[in-house]
Fold:
Amino acid sequence: MGGVANRIEPATTARSRCVTCGKAIEKGAARLAEEHWDVGLRKLISRYYHVRCAAAVHPEMVHRALDDVRPGAVFDRAGIEAQIEARVAHTEEQRRQRYEARQAERAADAPVVAADDTTLELLAQLEDDPEDPGMLAVVADQLQARGDVRGELISVQLALAKADRVAMRRLTASDRRGGAVARGVPARGGAGADRGDGGGDDGDGGGVGAGAGAALDLDGLTRRRAELLAQLAAPLDGGGRAEWGTGFLRRLELRRRAADRIEAQLALWRHPSVRLVQELRLAFESARDAAWLARLAEVAPRAVRRLELLVEGDGAVAELPALLAALPRLEALALDARADHARLAHPRLLRLSLGRARRLGEPARAAARLSPDALPALVSLSLAASADHVLEEPAAGGAEPAGATGAAATAGSAVPAGAPAIATALAAALGRPVPTYRLQRDDLDEVCALLAARWLPRLTHLSFTGGVLTEAGVAALERGLDGRRLRRLELLEAEVPLGAQARLARLCDELAFPVPASSTELAVWVEHAAKPEWGRGEIVRRFDGKLEVKFPGHGLKVFKADAPFLRLGT
Structure:
């Protein structure tokens, strides 16, 4: 089924063998690693090649792998690039020729496309509201008068949409009267059609079956719609997906595309069906491919309202501001890529969603660099936090690593389950302390403090995914809002103090809060029925169905959360 991801790395052992020549790859030698999936395999597997062997038989795979060369991989890069250059160019040229041949075949059978001044002016007006049924009806009449079958498609779609609304009104009225109307059977003329139901009150008169008394052949219209959609389809290959609106594509998705492949599809962006695309999703394999965004700014549809951009890897996308400037009607941006947030600017952008952070601290950096002046209309902000395992070396003198037990493990972080026991056993076996890993999550308190002064007075929607929020962060939200309320506040997959829900609920009209799964998770204190002398202990951590409890004068204890001898309370 082909490779999924490629990289060049130093071999970590001498056990791997080259798929091409079958010989062992020496430890430390540069090898090409391919994550591979095929039918019958339950998960990805890694296949390895000598770099020169791969260059000889898989030049395009090596070409992609050169974008991800891991530290320590030593090889003759210039020689490899020279070896594969001609073959990669030849393959790309063949692909381009095949594509152009297919396009030429389609062009021979292409329908008439109206391009007179009146039509272009009407289409420009439609960009302001591509779903306006009244304007669509006017455009349909104009296109049909010019022999453009897109006008017929719009009329058919409007007629079918009107029939659906009429049927729904009849069913609703029948439900109110308690009458019996056959459900799921659309109206085909009848009394409603004779009255001209929807002829003017829906604002989408005109087109097929718009006149009073017109009996609609819905089966025939549905078949004709399918024929017209196939005739007017934009040229997409297997990696693309499109959703139709009325007469034009409403959403376009291009997934895992290398820039050279998108460049070969410039005909797609010039296709009439793409003119009124309102939602655009682009997924790039690397920041190098995302450099094509500057080219896209020249051809992207100006009707785009929502842009979703995914770029794999850690490279920063420098061309994003140029694309944003080319989309005057943009209202929502979902960005899952590294970018200079200080350069994000758009006068009409209402909603900004920043995807999962690649590194710890990125949400705070984004909050500090986003400019309210550059985004004057923004009212909805979504930030996703990061989490990473931090290596902690053993303290001098064999002391227990910080974060292994106690309060240090709960100060905005959690120790992986079983880590202290494993580290202790390994240290005993080796006769010396060993390093441990601590799971560290982004600090949402800092993010809230940065948003308080500049953004919270304006925002109506705020969302956090992941991270750790403490009472200090809640207080920062209270200061920033200064008595006003958000319409919606979301805290998804975030660590939040158990007692903070009431305070957070007072800050918004709607709160999406990580709801505890049971009363055990609501509890904040514990008493041991068999050890009353321990008194009341404080829950400091929850993990793997267990509770870690700190009893005054008796230290930390770990119990099963459902232990019958525990009394819990809030």
Observations:
- The domain at 519-569 is CATH 2.30.30.140 (SH3 type barrels.).
- Confidence is low (pLDDT under 50) at residues 179-207, 209-214, 397-419.
